[in-house]
């Protein structure tokens, strides 16, 4: 019995690596600290009522953002470990197997569990406020979307200490991800962590399309809608077409691994190139799913801090919608070198070049918005200006990669790594940072410290250039992706050392941002936070943070940038008789259902049908229980609205 228990434990838990043991200790201490604090201050009931069961879009957005920050820390540590291994030739800091696991988890976490939830967090907090709505179209579904994302993320991250991390690369190409070459549990954690999270992402896309199309306040036509909301619409349209492809692709891979389907096994009658086509049919639109909302943020920030209307509003709208469509016609440029043929390569080369045109349009629109404007340089505007040279370089190197003959040189090299990070970090993450600094007062009712914000901005940008500019040269010098060590004779040492120093600076920038939040939270300066930037859109017309019902009376919109126009005319809110406000009730079903999904995924990873089947039964039971909930809403009485409004106005003036 004891021998069987030891054998099971050695297979179930990851052992033999000091880094893993350190992670085990830190996870245990963190959990103990959280449970102790909640118990000591008797906050379990508060946590359940106010957060775990909430359907308030603002609180769901904050939870998305908090989860994203935690995943940024995890993915950033992975990046620093990789850069430490590559800082000098012939280092043995990480063994090859562990390095493969780290670069796999780094990619998955940063794209799907850091950038996506940060994006969804900003969707949730801002879009209903910009539209003059009191919530999203489907509040219950919104809560379920978050908890499915969170369950998938936790299931994936659990592989670090239980079962073993996936190691087939962040897109899990066969045959590296086949059962024959990858018999461990890590790849199944990969499949089910992403599958469960992806269901939540798809539901979020549907929810926000309906919210934007059906819940705009009276008078807000589509062409009076703020640019961030337009960017969310274009991104969500891409989500609802792209994520079903990912779901089917991973389901087919699971059939290969679990049932021996051989769909992607060459010697079993399948074809691994089919997987690569399918994964990039999702993968390239995913890049634009992430970057389109960042474009919307830059547009809002540029107009606000230039004190001008956004230049070329209609062209920006058309450019975003064109990108969301054309992004589905570029996937094959990821494998020009794989023998698709000249005609196929030519088509995808041209489609990739074409998508650069609407992307370039936006850069010129931002520049013309700032031209002759009364530009001020608060922290959000610094991020906005800093993105322009970064994104131009990323776009130009993307065009270079779109040239099929030249791609034979760039393919699979560090040139590609540098380009990808130039777009994703300098385009997406920096954009979301701009949005966080810009909308932080709206989320929490106080501004972040400007001095610390500027320090973080400069550290991030200096670190980014030091980290990734040398990688373009390394790629042209012949350094390929996925190498975990190299010799002194390669001539890559100096560039890799500089790149590692840059990564350390970006890590320091993240620490400064955490310090900024802690410092600002301590001071909690709420003075003038209703509209601290003298902004243009409706979210700034109400107190900060917004009341749980958002608007006491729904605003009437007559112009694009309606809040700005009203301020210019010296408008004051007319006396309106308040009415009871219809709001959704909190629900514990989403978090309970997501727990059943977690159990199902965990059971399928280890082939424990005794756990997986009851998990699916629990999911079905939650659906049935919710279908019989005939009172999912309530009315906020006028007296409570008056009390909340009076307190909110006092706090945010």
TrEMBL record:
InterPro entries: Cyt_c_oxase-like_su1_dom, Cyt_c_oxase-like_su1_sf, Cyt_C_Oxase_1. GO terms for cellular component: plasma membrane. Residues 40-558 form the Cytochrome oxidase subunit I profile domain. The keyword Translocase applies. Keywords: Cell membrane, Copper, Electron transport, Heme, Iron, Membrane, Metal-binding, Respiratory chain, Translocase, Transmembrane, Transmembrane helix, Transport. PROSITE patterns: COX1. SUPFAM superfamilies: Cytochrome c oxidase subunit I-like (SSF81442). It is found in: Cell membrane. It comes from the Bacteria. It catalyses: 4 Fe(II)-[cytochrome c] + O2 + 8 H(+)(in) = 4 Fe(III)-[cytochrome c] + 2 H2O + 4 H(+)(out). It is an enzyme of class 7 (translocase). Pathway: Energy metabolism; oxidative phosphorylation. Its main location: membrane. CDD domains: Ubiquinol_Oxidase_I. Its EC number is 7.1.1.9. Signal peptide: none annotated. One of its GO terms (molecular function) is cytochrome bo3 ubiquinol oxidase activity. It is a multi-pass membrane protein. Coiled coil: none annotated. GO terms for biological process: aerobic respiration; electron transport coupled proton transport; respiratory electron transport chain. Belongs to the heme-copper respiratory oxidase family. PANTHER family: CYTOCHROME BO(3) UBIQUINOL OXIDASE SUBUNIT 1, CYTOCHROME C OXIDASE SUBUNIT 1. This is Cytochrome c oxidase subunit 1. The lineage of its organism: Bacteria, Bacillati, Bacillota, Bacilli, Bacillales. The gene is qoxB_2.
């Amino acid at each position: 019995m004891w021998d069987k228990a030891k054998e099971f434990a050695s297979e179930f838990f990851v052992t033999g690596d000091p880094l893993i043991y350190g992670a085990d200790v830190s996870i245990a201490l963190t959990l103990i600290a959280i449970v102790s604090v909640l118990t000591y201050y008797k906050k379990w009931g508060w946590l359940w009522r106010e957060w775990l069961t909430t359907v308030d879009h603002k609180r769901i957005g904050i939870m998305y953002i908090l989860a994203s920050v935690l995943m940024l820390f995890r993915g950033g540590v992975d990046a620093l470990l990789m850069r430490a291994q590559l800082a000098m030739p012939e280092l043995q800091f990480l063994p090859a197997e562990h390095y493969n696991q780290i670069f796999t988890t780094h990619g998955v976490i940063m794209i799907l569990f850091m950038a996506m939830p940060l994006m969804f967090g900003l969707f949730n907090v801002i879009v209903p406020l910009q539209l003059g709505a009191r919530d999203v179209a489907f509040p219950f579904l919104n809560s379920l979307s978050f908890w499915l994302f969170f369950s998938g993320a936790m299931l994936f991250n659990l592989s670090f200490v239980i079962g073993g991390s996936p190691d087939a690369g962040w897109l899990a190409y066969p045959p590296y991800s086949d059962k024959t070459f990858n018999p461990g549990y890590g790849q199944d954690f990969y499949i089910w962590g992403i599958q469960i999270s992806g269901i939540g992402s798809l539901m979020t896309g549907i929810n926000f399309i309906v919210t934007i199309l059906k819940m705009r306040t009276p008078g807000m036509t589509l062409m009076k809608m703020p640019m961030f909301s337009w960017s969310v619409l274009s991104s969500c349209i891409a989500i609802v077409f792209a994520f079903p492809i990912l779901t089917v692709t991973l389901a087919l891979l699971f059939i290969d691994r679990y049932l021996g389907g051989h769909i992607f096994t060459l010697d079993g009658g399948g074809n691994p190139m089919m997987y690569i086509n399918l994964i990039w049919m999702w993968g390239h639109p995913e890049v634009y799913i992430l970057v389109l909302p960042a474009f919307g943020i830059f547009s809002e920030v540029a107009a606000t801090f230039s004190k001008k209307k956004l230049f070329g509003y209609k062209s920006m709208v058309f450019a975003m919608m064109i990108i969301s469509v054309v992004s589905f016609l570029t996937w094959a440029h990821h494998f020009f070198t794989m023998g698709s043929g000249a005609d196929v390569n030519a088509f995808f080369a041209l489609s990739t070049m074409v998508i650069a045109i609407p992307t370039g349009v936006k850069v010129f629109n931002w520049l013309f918005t700032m031209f002759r404007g009364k530009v001020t340089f608060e922290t959000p505007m610094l991020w906005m200006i800093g993105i322009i040279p970064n994104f131009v370089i990323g776009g130009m190197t993307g065009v270079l990669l779109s040239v099929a003959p030249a791609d034979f040189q760039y393919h699979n090299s560090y040139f590609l790594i540098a380009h990808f990070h130039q777009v994703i970090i300098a385009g997406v993450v920096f954009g979301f940072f701009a949005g966080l600094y810009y909308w932080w007062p709206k989320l929490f009712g106080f501004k972040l410290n400007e001095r610390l914000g500027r320090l973080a901005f400069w550290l991030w940008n200096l670190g980014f250039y030091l980290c990734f500019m040398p990688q373009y040269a390394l790629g042209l010098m012949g350094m390929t992706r996925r190498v975990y060590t190299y010799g002194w004779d390669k001539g890559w040492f100096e560039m890799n050392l500089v790149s590692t120093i840059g990564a350390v600076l970006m890590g320091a920038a993240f620490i400064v941002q955490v310090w900024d939040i802690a410092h600002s939270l301590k001071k909690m300066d709420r003075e003038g936070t209703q509209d601290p930037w003298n902004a243009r859109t409706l979210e700034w017309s109400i107190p900060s943070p917004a009341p749980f019902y958002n608007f006491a009376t729904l605003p009437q919109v007559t112009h694009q940038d309606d809040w700005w126009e009203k301020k210019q005319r010296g408008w004051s809110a007319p006396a309106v008789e308040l009415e009871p406000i219809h709001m959704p009730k909190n629900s514990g079903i989403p978090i309970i259902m997501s727990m059943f999904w977690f159990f199902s995924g965990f059971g399928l990873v280890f082939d424990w049908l005794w756990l997986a089947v009851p998990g699916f039964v629990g999911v079905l039971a939650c659906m049935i229980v919710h279908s019989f909930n005939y009172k999912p809403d309530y009315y906020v009485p006028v007296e409570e609205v008056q009390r909340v409004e009076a307190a909110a106005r006092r706090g945010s003036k």
